[in-house]
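Below is one record:
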Amino acid sequence: MLVTNDVLPTEILRHGAYLCVQPSDEHLLTLLARLEFTNEFDATSGHPADAYALLRRVDATPRDLADDALMQADAIVHVASPDASRVAQFCEDARYAL
């Protein structure tokens, strides 16, 4: 059976970012609320357009590319949006808020 990717969409559907954080970063929740991102775990009617998830890092396995921030992070925040500028704004503001 021939497998091709010609039936997959080629347009960008969502943009996202992962940031390594410490769970005591209260400024993070303030920033997410100000930018009107919705916790995807609290969604009741489908996945929010502008979503975030706070993930607790339980373990990480070193691979070919060293990533000390990930290896030492207590948590990871994931943001996603169909609007790339919203993700970029979050990343820029997070640099100063955290």
Notes: The helical segments are 26-34, 68-72, 84-97. The radius of gyration is 16 Å. Strands lie at 15-21, 38-39, 51-56, 75-81. The chain has three helices and four strands.
